[in-house]
């Protein structure tokens, strides 16, 4: 019964996330590499899959298509940047640097995977690709998933 309730809640949440117009698909693993309008460019969360049950320590991995991942110290370079993880909050406003706190995790070293610790329960994780100055592309290059920590 608990799995049925969880699945129903997830279905409603995924519909809401998908309709939010955040620039991502809301699916994480729905098969589309297009995470920003046109050109088949974007970012995709490839691990874990959306709706996964995960441990408190969870590794998040992203892939890019049409963008090059590089360390933030390389500065602002067209078509290049680095990953950020946005946990349980909305994407920051366009044109603004991404804050740095427990809900906004910077991966300025140019890595594509990051292990984070999450509390028990449901969490929305968004990948947001940004330039070397931590300002996201406009429109946002993002993807999102929902996971359950047990």
TrEMBL record:
Pfam families listed in its UniProt record: DUF4399
Domain DUF4399, chain residue ranges per copy: 62-149
Signal sequence extent: 1-20
Species lineage: Bacteria, Pseudomonadati, Nitrospinota/Tectimicrobiota group, Nitrospinota, Nitrospinia
Keyword Signal: yes
UniProt-listed InterPro entries: DUF4399
Top-level taxonomic group: Bacteria
Keywords for the protein's UniProt record, in alphabetical order: Signal
Source organism of this protein record: Nitrospina watsonii
Name of protein: DUF4399 domain-containing protein
